[in-house]
Design a protein that fits this description.
Two copies of one chain form a homodimer. With 360 residues, chain A is an alpha/beta fold. In chain A, 31% of the residues lie in helices and 26% in strands. Chains A and B meet through strand 15, strand 16, strand 17 and helix 11 of A and strand 15, strand 16, strand 17 and helix 11 of B.
Chain lengths: 360, 360
C-alpha cells in the first residue's frame, strides 16, 4: 500500500508520566516502558502503528533532548532528522509549533496527525481507518479536527469534548466545548447525554490551518518560531533562545478551546491514555478475581480487584487484599488504593520535596 | 545481686517463625532479627533479660545445629557448653528433655524456667519479679507451673489457659484446661469470664518434677534420653540416633494437658509472642493514624492502621490504604491484610511448594 507523501505524523514524546511513578520517572518516562508486558515499549508501538498510515520518513518524534538516545534505542530505524529535540519541556503548543517548522521546511502542503507517544490503542485497524477519514477531512477543510473517544464509563480522570449533534460530513461534528476533568456526578450526566467524548489528545489538521491558528491565538509563540530556520547553521543556538522565552501552554488551552472551527470525529478503537495505574489495571488481562499481575514471580492469594506490577526479580505476594495497586520498582515500592490513583501526583510531589528529586 | 546457683533457664531457640515470613525464614529465623528496630535481636534481648534472674552460666540455649553460629554471633559471651544443639526440629518436648539431660549432669537440684527466644517482654522488672515468685513456688512444690498472661483483648491467635479461681498461694492457681486458638466469639466469652489467660509458653518447674512427668506421660522420650550421657565420647552420635527415633510433640500437648498438678501464675509484663505481623503492629510505636513504619525511608500518605516493615534501602510509600501490612525484604515483597495475618502460613506453604523452598 502506498502512502500519501503529503501526510505526516507528529508523535509527542516529551512527557514524564508522573502518575505512573515510580516506574515512569524523569530519567525513564512511561513511553519507553513496556508497561503492558508485551515486549514493546509504548513509543515503539505508537511508531509502528503510524507506519500503516503515512510514509515512515513522514513520522516525526518530538521529545526532550534528554531522551534522544532513548528514542534511537527504541526506534533504531528512525532517521535523526526525524527526531526533533526540545531544549526544555513547554507543554504541547510549542512542541507542535516546533514540529510544524520542520515539516514546513520539507512540505508546506502537509496534512498532519498529532498524537501522544504513550497511549494504548487496541484496535489498530479501526484506528487507521478513523485516522484516514480525519486526514481526508482536514485536507479539504480549514478546520482543526480532534479524535474524540466514545466514553464507556464515567471516568473522572479524562477531559471531555461536547459536540453539536448535527453531522457535518463523514461522521464529523462541530465541537461545542472542551471541559476539564469532571466530578463523578457530572461525568455520569455527560455519559447519559451522549453529547460528550473523551479528549484523547489526537489532532488532525493541515499545516496551513494549524499555523494560521497559532498565529491568531498564540502570536508570541508564532513570532518566536517564525524567526527560526531549521537549516541555518546556528539553528540550535537560536532554538535554545526561542524556547527559553517561550510560554508553557497546552494546545488544548491555547488553541482548541479558542478557535472557531474545531471539529471532532467520534471514535472507537480501544483507547486508553494509560495515565494512571488504575487505567493499566482497566486494560490488563485479569484472573477470575479481577487481579492483574504484571511481571515475573507475582502471586495473589484471596485477593481481588488488584494490580501488581513487578519491575524486579523479587517474589511479590499479595494476600487478603482488595482494590490495591502494588508497584515494585528497582528503588521504590509504591502501594496505593486502586480507587485513589490520582493521588500519586501528590505523593510524587511530597517525595520530590523531601528527597530533593532523588526518586524523580 | 547474687543469683541462686540452683536456678536455671532454658531458652528455646529452634523455631523458624514462619508467620513472620518473608523476614523470618528457615535460614534466618525471627529470634535473630531486630524485629522491633531497637538495635537488638529478640534472642539477645531474651538472654540479657535472664541474666537478671539466674547466674549467666546457668542459661542454656537449645537450638537447631544449623543456628549454632548465629547464636554465638548474637550472644558472643555464651560458652559453647551452654549452647545445646538439636540434630533436628522435634517440637518442644524433646527440646526440654534434652536440656534437662545437660542440666542434670551439672546440678540435679536445679529449678528451671523454660522460655521461648523470640517473644517480646516490655516490663522487664515485673517479669523478673514474676519469674522469682514462680521459681520459689516450683522449688517447694512438685508442680508444673506456667506463666499465664492476663488477656487484654479477645485474641484468636493465642492458646488459652483456664484456671480454678481458688488461690493456692502467692497468686498461683490450679489449671483446669488448656485450650487451642479459639474463635472470636469464644475468645470474647473467655475474656468476660476472667477465668482464662494467654498461654505464653513459659514454664517453671524443678528438674525432678519435669523429669518425672516426662517419664510418666512421654515414656518413649524418657527412654531415648535416659540412655544418653552428655559426657560420653560418642554423645553426639548417640544423640543423632535418639533424635532420629524421637517423636515430634509439644510440651503443652505431651505433658501440660495431661499432668495432674499443673498450676498457673496470672501475670502482666507487657508480653507479646510477636507471632504475626499484626502482633508486631500491636506493640509498635504508631503515628496519629495508627500506622507503624519500621525501617528506613518509609512513608504513609492518607493511610491508617497499617504496618510497613522495610528491611531494604528502598523507598517505600503507601497511600490511601487501610489495615495493610507491607513487608519489603531482600528477595520478597509481601502485602497482606492486617486482619488476616494468620493466612501467612498458608501463603508460605503455597510458595514453598511452587518454588521448592527457594524462599524458605
Amino acid at each position: 500500500m502506498t502512502q500519501n507523501k503529503n501526510h505526516y505524523v507528529i508523535i509527542m514524546a516529551g512527557g514524564i508520566g508522573s502518575r505512573f511513578w515510580p516506574v515512569s520517572k524523569k530519567s525513564f518516562p512511561k513511553q519507553f516502558i513496556d508497561i503492558l508486558g508485551t515486549g514493546e515499549s509504548l513509543i515503539k508501538q505508537t511508531f509502528n502503528r503510524f507506519t500503516h498510515l503515512v510514509p515512515e520518513e513522514n513520522i516525526f518524534i518530538v521529545t526532550n533532548k534528554d531522551y534522544a538516545e532513548l528514542v534511537q534505542e527504541h526506534i533504531p530505524q528512525i532517521k535523526t532528522s526525524r527526531i526533533i529535540l526540545e531544549p526544555s519541556a513547554k507543554n504541547t503548543a510549542p512542541c507542535i509549533a516546533l514540529a510544524n517548522l520542520h515539516i514546513k521546511s520539507i512540505n508546506p502542503e502537509a496534512t498532519i496527525l498529532v498524537a501522544p507517544s504513550d497511549h494504548l490503542i487496541l484496535s489498530e485497524i479501526k484506528f487507521i481507518q478513523t485516522a484516514k477519514v480525519a486526514i481526508s477531512f482536514a485536507e479539504s477543510n480549514p478546520s482543526l479536527l480532534t479524535l474524540g473517544i466514545k466514553p464507556t464509563r464515567p471516568d473522572t480522570g479524562y477531559g471531555y469534548i461536547q459536540f453539536n449533534k448535527t453531522e457535518l460530513q463523514d461522521g464529523i461534528y462541530k465541537v461545542k466545548t472542551f471541559t476539564e476533568k469532571p466530578t463523578l456526578d457530572i461525568a455520569i450526566s455527560f455519559l447519559e447525554s451522549k453529547e460528550f467524548l473523551w479528549n484523547a489528545g489526537i489532532f488532525v489538521w493541515s499545516l496551513k490551518s494549524i499555523s494560521n491558528s497559532i498565529e491568531q491565538h498564540l502570536p508570541e509563540i508564532h513570532q518566536l518560531f517564525a524567526e527560526l530556520d531549521v537549516n541555518a547553521p546556528n539553528y540550535h543556538v537560536e532554538l535554545e533562545k526561542s524556547y527559553a522565552q517561550c510560554p508553557s501552554i497546552s494546545i488544548d488551552y491555547g488553541i482548541m478551546e479558542k478557535d472557531d472551527f474545531v471539529c471532532v470525529l467520534p471514535s472507537e478503537f480501544g483507547w486508553s491514555d494509560l495515565g494512571t495505574w488504575k487505567s493499566l489495571w482497566d486494560v490488563s488481562d485479569k484472573d477470575p478475581y479481577q487481579n492483574a499481575l504484571i511481571g515475573k514471580n507475582t502471586h495473589a492469594f484471596d485477593s481481588k480487584n488488584s494490580l501488581v506490577f513487578n519491575d524486579t526479580d523479587k517474589l511479590v505476594v499479595i494476600s487478603g487484599v482488595d482494590n490495591l495497586v502494588v508497584v515494585e520498582s528497582q528503588n521504590v515500592l509504591l502501594v496505593i488504593n486502586n480507587e485513589k490513583e490520582q493521588e500519586v501526583k501528590t505523593v510524587v510531589g511530597a517525595i520530590k520535596d523531601q528527597y530533593k528529586g532523588k526518586y524523580d
